[in-house]
Amino acid sequence: MNKEAIHSDNAPAAIGTYSQAIRAGEFVFLSGQIPLDPATMELVGGDFEARARRVFDNLTAVAAAAGGSLDQIVKLTVYLTDLDNFAAVNRVMEDYFAVPYPARAALGVASLPKGADIEADAILVVG
């Protein structure tokens, strides 16, 4: 199996032993993105929706580096420290995705890296 690491300077650098994404054939596996500003590597300020938008902006940058876009995502997983933010995620996703929406799971978790309240990872198909 051939696998290729994908990197974008327009998304936060990895903060651990992982790649921003890995391409294996036509599949690209995007690592989880939290609402980090790529320039400062700090969590963005503002309300929950601003942080959710930063997560999807980061995913957009990594998908583009792989030669793809969010429209090619087939599976999205969203992690929330407060499931009361589920409706806000849906509102934000309407600005980033079109029908047919990707398959998705939303999970409530106790905590996320750097104290973030949202993280998302994805699988997209390119080619």
Output the keywords.
60s Ribosomal Protein L30, Chain: A; single chain; six-stranded mixed β-sheet; 2 helices; alpha+beta; 127 residues
Distance between the termini: 17 Å
Portion of residues in beta strands equals 25-35%
Number of DSSP helical runs: 2
The radius of gyration is: 14 Å
**Largest sheet at a glance?**
6 strands, mixed
SSE arrangement, N to C: EEEHEHEE
Number of strands: 6
Count of discrete structural domains = 1
CATH topology: 60s Ribosomal Protein L30, Chain: A
Categorize the overall geometry. globular
Q: Could you say what the CATH architecture is?
A: 2-Layer Sandwich
Q: Which CATH class?
A: Alpha Beta
Query: Can you tell me the CATH superfamily?
Result: RutC-like
Explain this structure to me?
The protein is an alpha+beta fold. The protein has one domain (4-125): RutC-like (60s Ribosomal Protein L30, Chain: A), CATH 3.30.1330.40. Helix content is 23%, strand content 28%. It has two helices and six strands. It has helices at 48-65, 86-96; strands at 4-6, 21-24, 27-33, 73-80, 103-108, 118-125. It has a six-stranded mixed β-sheet with strand order 1-2-3-6-4-5, with helices on one face. Helix 1 packs across helix 2. The longest helix has 18 residues, at 48-65. The two termini are 17 Å apart. 29% of the residues are buried. The mean pLDDT is 97.
